[in-house]
């Protein structure tokens, strides 16, 4: 029995991202493709997403010209790949407030959004700091926070304080304070409906970028594998490693069940296809009665 | 007012929301960067960045006030900090001579500073009611954002988002490699 289907939907990508950004300490090891994706969860009469991407009309030219972000497509085009429309989405979990995750709320007119309160409170603090501490305020657009105010005014923004169980049936929200960002959130889907699930998935946001963050090389300390944190964080590597442990524990230490949405090699672990727009759909699991969108 | 009249006014207000592209002002033409000397660019950057950050702080406080309905948000030290920084940037702008070719930018920054001050006033007033409603403060901070965004000069590093450590910031490194 599985309640939910989960897909990872690519909406854009960078072809050459420095590997040290996704893997701590991987200096001078070249580049990897970095897909920009959001996750879609469907089941129990809900359509939920983890993150919403960014709005090309605001940043498309800047990103395209300056950073090499390619092939951006609208949520309407991307969700059509799994037979859905943005207006079908009733719930959005914002893993963190970076522009490429929280930057397109207006395209989901019927959704209620969940974000960690700490992500907002420490943002307010970081923005009050002088320029020499500017490191701590990168990649967030004040305009996205303003759109968050409008969502709150419409009673469509919920600020979560820590763990929230059963935000939707058998879906829990967890926080990793001071890690990739101040209040990064991951989503735990217990697909068999049990509190101690043996069919669980952890949707990691940017707490995990690639498989090596969970199954990194451990020869240097004489183990087969160890957790290696992501390279980009305002918090600590310790908190990233401990968040990885929490996610792994939640899925019975089965690494394939921790889903990194920036990982190009999801296709090696899960059925997938490339759409006519040149973007990948990875099918993480199918709920009972749901048909495959990649075969 | 009869309900039909109120409905009409509501519709009129809703046709073009504050973020509607149809009512957005066109971006200011970027000045010839070669003609803006380094000192002048630095002079512009300081109030620009201060206002960008103040808008971020104000927007975050509005989210917290509206979503939590906690009236004590207005008493947080963060509000006093924002007030102090607003006074500083207002003073900076008052003393600023507009660099040649950047007169409109300075004009917009002064307007944005006024709106940020009005936003903070509206935030404090919003908690005097039984339910917290930050609509007025939202309109003001959104208008301030638009004005500061109009002043962006990418080549001088005046940008609303600091992308330098963001997930996409690889092309410049690739170019250097």
What does the model show?
The complex is a heterodimer of chains A (295) and B (177). By secondary structure, chain A is α+β, with helices and mostly antiparallel strands. Chain A has 8 helices and 16 strands. In chain A, strands 1, 2, 3, 4, 5, 6, 7, 15 and 16 form a 9-stranded mixed β-sheet that branches. In chain A, strands 8-9-10-11-14 form a 5-stranded mixed β-sheet. In chain A, strand 15 (272-274) and strand 16 (280-285) form a beta hairpin. The longest helix of chain A is centred in the last third of the chain and has 14 residues, at 237-250. The relative contact order of chain A is 0.18. The mean pLDDT of chain A is 93. Chain B is an all-alpha fold and 177 residues long. In chain B, 62% of the residues lie in helices and 0% in strands. Chain B contains 6 helices and no strands. Chain B has helices at 3-15, 38-68, 77-95, 103-126, 135-150, 171-176. In chain B, helix 2 packs parallel to helix 4 (103-126), helix 3 (77-95) packs antiparallel against helix 4 (103-126) and helix 4 (103-126) runs antiparallel to helix 5 (135-150). At the A-B interface, strand 1, strand 2, helix 2, helix 5 and helix 6 of A face helix 2, helix 3, helix 5 and helix 6 of B.
Q: How would you describe this structure in keywords?
A:
heterodimer, A: 295 residues, alpha+beta, five-stranded mixed sheet, 8 helices, 16 strands, B: 177 residues, mainly alpha, elongated, disordered N terminus
Brief summary of the model shown:
Chain A has 8 helices and 16 strands. With 295 residues, chain A is an alpha+beta fold. In chain A, strands 1, 2, 3, 4, 5, 6, 7, 15 and 16 form a 9-stranded mixed β-sheet that branches. In chain A, strands 8-9-10-11-14 form a 5-stranded mixed β-sheet. In chain A, strands 12-13 form a two-stranded antiparallel ribbon.
């Amino acid at each position: 029995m599985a309640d939910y289907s989960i897909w990872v939907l690519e909406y854009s990508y960078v072809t050459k991202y420095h590997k040290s950004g996704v893997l701590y300490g991987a200096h001078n090891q070249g580049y990897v493709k970095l897909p920009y994706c959001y996750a879609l969860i469907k089941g129990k009469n809900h359509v939920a997403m983890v993150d919403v991407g960014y709005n090309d009309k605001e940043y498309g030219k800047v990103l395209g010209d300056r950073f090499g972000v390619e092939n951006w497509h609208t949520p309407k085009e991307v969700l059509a790949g799994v037979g859905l429309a943005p207006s079908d989405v009733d719930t959005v979990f914002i893993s963190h407030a970076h522009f490429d995750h929280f930057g397109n709320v207006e395209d989901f007119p019927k959704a209620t959004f969940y974000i960690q309160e700490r992500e907002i409170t420490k943002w307010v603090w970081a923005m009050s700091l002088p320029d020499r501490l500017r490191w701590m305020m990168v990649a967030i657009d004040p305009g996205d926070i303003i759109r968050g105010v409008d969502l709150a005014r419409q009673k469509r923004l919920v600020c979560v304080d820590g763990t929230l169980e059963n935000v939707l049936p058998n879906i829990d929200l967890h926080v990793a304070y001071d890690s990739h960002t101040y209040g990064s959130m991951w989503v735990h889907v217990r697909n068999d409906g049990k509190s101690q699930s043996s069919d669980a998935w952890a949707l990691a946001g940017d707490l995990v970028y690639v498989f090596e963050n969970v199954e990194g090389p451990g020869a240097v300390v004489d183990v087969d594998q160890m957790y290696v944190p992501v390279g980009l964080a305002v918090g600590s590597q310790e908190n990233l490693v401990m968040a990885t442990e929490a996610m792994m524990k939640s899925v019975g230490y089965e690494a394939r069940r921790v889903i990194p949405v920036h990982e190009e090699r999801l296709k090696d672990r899960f059925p997938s296809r490339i759409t006519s727009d040149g973007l990948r759909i990875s099918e993480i699991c199918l709920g009972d009665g749901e048909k495959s969108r990649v075969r | 007012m009869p309900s039909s009249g109120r409905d009409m006014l509501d519709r009129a207000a809703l046709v073009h929301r504050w973020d509607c592209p149809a009512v957005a002002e066109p971006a200011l033409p970027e000045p010839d960067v070669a003609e803006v000397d380094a000192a002048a660019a630095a002079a512009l950057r300081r109030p620009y960045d201060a206002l960008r950050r103040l808008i971020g702080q104000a927007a975050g406080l509005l989210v917290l006030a509206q979503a939590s309905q906690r009236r004590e948000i207005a008493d947080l030290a963060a509000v006093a900090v924002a007030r102090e920084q607003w006074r500083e940037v207002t003073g900076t702008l008052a003393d600023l001579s507009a660099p040649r070719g950047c007169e409109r930018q300075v004009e917009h920054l002064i307007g944005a500073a006024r709106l940020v001050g009005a936003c903070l006033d509206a935030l404090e007033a919003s908690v005097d009611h039984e339910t917290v409603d930050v609509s007025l403060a939202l309109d003001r901070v959104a208008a301030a954002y638009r004005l500061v965004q109009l002043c962006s000069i990418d080549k001088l590093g005046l940008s609303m988002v600091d992308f330098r450590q963001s997930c996409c910031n690889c092309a410049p490194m690739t170019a250097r490699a």
